[in-house]
Write a structure and sequence with these properties.
heterodimer, A: 256 residues, mainly alpha, 9 helices, B: alpha/beta
């Protein structure tokens, strides 16, 4: 990356970026004990990335659940298996859609604002000023946002899943006339706590770590110009989404 | 301070909401909702074939869930499947000559163990073995049986009319008893109609 924020495309630069990001991750992990002094800041970040994302997460969860209900009802009715709607919707939400869609929304809503905030701190020399005052910016600025991402993402994914189930129930039972008891009993008999619900929680923790790592790294290493911050914000969304989906594949392969 | 208080309350509410959503998902929408609560006792049952029976599959009497399958293992010497059933202590008045069968819920649904009550005055105690068992119906076997069965009867029906006088009159009587059980309904139909 050069001073104008335009990064040259190349294998070596790409590897260097990944390496710098890995080193940055180690620096964050090393700064976490020091960041416990700023626990209030961590709480404020959980509020900012978590509680403030609830509206979009709940709305999207509801609509994703309703769409799943409609689509799967149509597909299952071909095979005469609409009774399985509850289990199919809940399994696809818990195992895949809940964690992944939450992570993509999180990258778009919280990741970008983290990048822009830290990037503007960098551009306006606030981070340099902290270093001058012997305040480690990684402990005060970066680590709280990183922890907040790991804490908030699984909770958001659970809320997303619950809203999705509610939406599917709304469409399947209230609208399409599926039997209420069939819907729930099929769901409870096919969903397992550990292999489905908790694996989804592990996934979304990993996504939370990756999304907040990418967001803080892009903000922290941005070129200190308005153009640089704009590029960094864009890259946050692109890299977070790619990393989320790639890690999703790897984790699914291992956690199955 | 007022600003800080509001975001702290917001964060607390958010974390509570998240964990209550997790608790709801984990307890209300999963098989945890069906786990036996409290004390249970174990019965053993041997099957020659358990089919697709899985761990934690339900055990039912008269269609009502009374327990779960807690263990499935192969008995090395007899090459039978030894299934351990974990029944709720509330249902401890099951006659000890009851029979166990592996059934399928619906045509292609999950398999479960059904207990058919007997008439013995004694009840099962923990660790008892269910002696009367019926293995799972294998769909492939059934299909195979019907395909082969109908094929046989069809052939036999075709053959009985024309070739009977000409050839193999000696072979007829030996095939007839084999065909008989399968052909019975087919033979009965034209007679009544």
């Amino acid at each position: 990356m050069n001073a104008t924020g335009k990064h040259r495309i190349g294998v070596v630069e790409g590897i260097a970026q990944v390496g710098a990001c890995g080193i940055f991750l180690l620096q964050i992990l090393a700064a976490i004990p020091a960041s416990l002094k700023h626990f209030r800041e961590t709480v404020r970040q959980i509020w900012f990335v978590g509680a403030m994302s609830l509206t979009i997460i709940m709305t999207c969860g509801l609509f994703v659940g309703m769409v799943l209900g409609l689509q799967l009802y149509y597909v299952l009715s071909i095979f005469g298996g609409t009774a399985a709607l509850g289990s199919v919707v809940s399994l696809s939400l818990y195992r895949e859609l809940g964690p992944v869609v939450t992570a993509l929304l999180f990258a778009g809503r919280a990741g970008t604002s983290i990048t822009a905030e830290i990037g503007l701190m960098r551009a306006t020399d606030q981070i340099d000023a902290m270093e001058m005052m012997a305040v480690d910016p990684r402990a005060y600025v970066v680590a709280p946002r990183f922890i907040a991402g790991i804490v908030a993402m699984p909770l958001l994914a659970c809320v997303f899943n619950a809203m999705g189930i509610f939406g599917a129930h709304l469409v399947g039972v209230s609208w399409l006339g599926l039997d209420n008891g069939t819907f729930w009993s099929n769901m409870t008999s096919s969903v397992d706590v550990w292999t489905d619900v908790i694996n989804g929680v592990w996934k979304s923790m990993a996504f939370g770590a990756v999304c907040s790592l990418v967001a803080t790294f892009q903000g922290y290493t941005t070129a200190p110009t308005s153009e640089g911050v704009a590029y960094a914000t864009t890259r946050t969304v692109v890299f977070s989404s790619i990393a989320t989906l790639a890690i999703d594949f790897v984790m699914t392969a291992f956690l199955m | 301070m007022a600003q800080r208080q509001s975001f702290q309350i917001g964060t607390g509410l958010f974390i509570l909401l998240g964990f209550s959503a997790l608790a709801y998902l984990a307890t209300q929408t999963t098989s945890l909702a069906n786990y036996t609560q409290g004390a249970s006792y174990q019965l053993k049952a041997r099957f020659t074939n358990v089919g697709q029976l899985k761990l934690r599959a339900p055990v039912k009497i008269a269609g009502v869930r009374v327990g779960t399958v807690s263990e499935i293992q192969l008995e090395a010497d007899k090459l039978d499947a030894l299934v351990t059933l974990s029944l709720d202590q509330r249902f401890n008045q099951i006659p000890d000559d009851s029979a166990a069968a592996v059934f399928t819920s619906g045509l292609l649904g999950d398999q479960y163990v059904s207990l058919q009550p007997g008439g013995s005055p004694q009840n099962f105690k923990s660790g008892d073995e269910v002696v009367l068992t019926q293995s799972s119906m294998q769909l492939e076997e059934l299909i195979g049986k019907y395909l082969v069965g109908s094929g046989d009867t069809g052939k036999a029906a075709d053959k009985t009319q024309p070739p009977k006088p000409e050839q193999e009159p000696a072979a007829r009587p030996s095939t007839k008893p084999d065909v008989k059980p399968g052909a019975k309904p087919a033979a009965a139909k034209p007679a009544t109609g």
